[in-house]
Amino acid sequence: MAESKQKPIKIENNFARELSRVNDDVLKYFKQRDFDSLYHDLDDASTVYIYSTGWQQELIAQYLAHELFIVGKYATVLPSALDELKAVSPFAKKR
User: Fold this and answer.
1) Residue-number span of the structural domain to which 67 is assigned
2) What's this model's pTM, rounded to 2 decimal places?
3) Is residue 78 helix, strand or coil?
4) What is the tally of structural domains in the chain?
5) SS3 12
6) Which residues of 66-88 are buried (b: 16+ CB within 10 A; e: fewer)?
7) How confident is the model at residue 18 (pLDDT cuts 50, 70, 90)?
8) Which residue from 8, 25, 62, 91 has the highest number of Cβ atoms inside 10 Å of its Cβ?
9) Longest dimension (CA), the chain
10) CB 35 within 8 A of CB 45
């Protein structure tokens, strides 16, 4: 039998260090953003419409709508694109 001349690959994985780095990057991103205009627009709006693009975003949209309700803001979560596709799929022609 021929022996493999490949050296074993050493995989370094430090989950805690990587998670810390990602968290630092997210905090840095948010510190660079100016949310004042968003907060003013939310405060001025009588109704907030929230559109999600997928299942996870829809869960977050529902959570945001609930939190807005708690502070007295009416919010409507619009159906996601995924929901719209599910609704029309029975009518689509199969080829």
Assistant:
1) 15-91
2) 0.58
3) strand
4) 1
5) coil
6) eebeeeebebebeebeeeeeeee
7) very high
8) 62
9) 76
10) no
